[in-house]
Amino acid sequence: MILQRIGNKGIRLGTLFERAARKHPTNVVILDHDLDIAPQLGRRATVAEVADLIDDMASRLWAANVRPSRRVVIYKSDGFDITLLACAAVRIGAVPVLLSPKLDGETVAELVRRTEQPYLLTDQNKLETELPASVFEEAEQVLLTSGSYKEAVELASLAGSPRVPAVTMPPEHPTLITHTSGTTGTPKLAVHTGATLQARYRPQAAITKPLLPGRETIAMHVSFVHSRLITALAISLFRGYPIVVLADSDPRKAADLFAQLRPGILEAHPNSFMEWEELADDPRKPLANVKLFSSTFDAIHPRTVQRLLAATERTAPVFGQLYGQSEIGPAVARSFSRRRGLDADGRCVGMPFPGMTDVRVVSRNGLPVSETNPGFIEVKSDGRIVTYLGEQERYDKQVNDGWWRMGDVGYRTKWGCVHLLDREVDMIEGFGSTLAAEDTLFTRLEELSEVIIIPDESGRAVPIVCTRDDKPIDPAAWKAATAGLPPMAEPVQWRQSDLPQTATTKIKRLELARLIAAGTASQLIEEKI
Hints:
Elements: H1 2-5, H2 16-23, E1 28-31, E2 44-46, H3 47-63, E3 71-74, H4 81-91, E4 95-98, H5 105-114, E5 119-122, H6 124-129, H7 135-138, E6 141-144, E7 153-154, E8 174-179, E9 189-193, H8 194-211, E10 218-221, H9 227-238, E11 243-245, H10 251-261, E12 265-268, H11 270-275, E13 292-295, H12 302-311, E14 318-325, E15 329-336, E16 348-352, E17 357-362, E18 375-381, E19 387-388, H13 392-396, E20 399-400, E21 403-412, E22 418-423, H14 434-444, E23 448-455, E24 461-467, H15 475-481, E25 492-493, H16 509-517, H17 521-528
Parallel strand pairs: 1-11, 3-4, 3-5, 5-6, 6-7, 10-11, 10-12, 12-13, 13-14, 24-25
Antiparallel strand pairs: 1-2, 8-9, 9-19, 14-15, 15-16, 16-22, 17-18, 18-21, 20-21, 21-22, 23-24
Helix pairs in contact: 2-3, 3-4, 8-9
């Protein structure tokens, strides 16, 4: 799209912190955890110190013979150093491949194989507990971020390597590879260029500027292997916002940190915001200074929006929602205010960015698209990835004359607002929108911490529910809450921590459905509750 293309020189990930340090050298990055690659740095550092760490790590990778255009798979224990190592790899022209610490070892081994003899950055714990021995054959070399392991090279042993100049690759050159959520099977490897990431940065930067005219502290809890973190960091670094990076979403720990640092912006996954609803009742008022709550990855429940907005004492706070996908970036946006009631339509995910993104909804059956006959949502944006690594044919199937099939169904109102009703693979014929039903249940039942409606082997809708502190759901309250909703089976209760999740905390609905279809779900639940 035209406004994404003008003067697009690429996001230049390798020098992101260095350029920000020249503009705001004393700005700080605060962590809730220690970095495996630099525990001596502590949990508070200036942007200039972080930039120097990236330069140091880049020199160590160079000393390990990593060169421009070579791929570097990063699969290590969770932490912000995943992102910093990606910056270090790009700084010398290499292409980082970010794999979630939540992925199992066999899946990682397959993705390493697909990456074709990459360098593998991992740690002793992953090698001992997750990764199969075959990764040593599939990788050019195995490098360790912490610990020691036979046949692997420790980054610590390369300390003091001569610094090397930054390598700037063309904007159209691959600069980052991330993986898709894996909600529908083995993750795909999404290839981003400097230009596509910059195209994603622009609409997000454009909409936040008028909302945040002053300097604010931003707290982020975003997957370290997701492209969203890159654009969020770029916006914050260049505006001089102090940055708080969380690896742990535990509400008690988050409350302690927010009560102390008083962030003005919160960026997190929808499920993290659901966890943080309880912070609204904390007497220390940890959310009192928040001006902007920012969420992407998925639509969010109206109850969560209202509880968080009610907890801040800022004038006219905003909850900003971006709807998009790993492959395309943000496509549409919508803001919420305190004026929106709990009966507001949470399925409305917003409007496209003028001059930057566009959306259309294509009929599934030749009949006009409507709320009762939703169609396929398709998006056009220069932020779209350029391929799936090793799966070009699979990529091509999702592109039609520049339009990208999102895998969701919905419709647009006469005003152009996009309404998201379901994932294509999650539709239950004759039920209507499962996501809308879940919104309703959240609004009517305060004790719910999660609810997922999935089909059983006969196609009947089965609600999987989680409650705060795992308290049994009250049958009478459930009956009242489901009044007026399409027919469903009796609720099945799980612990939320046991639900299968992706790197961005989305629930793997197909995996849950397979458990039910296999007849093993009830047995598992009896053990858990």
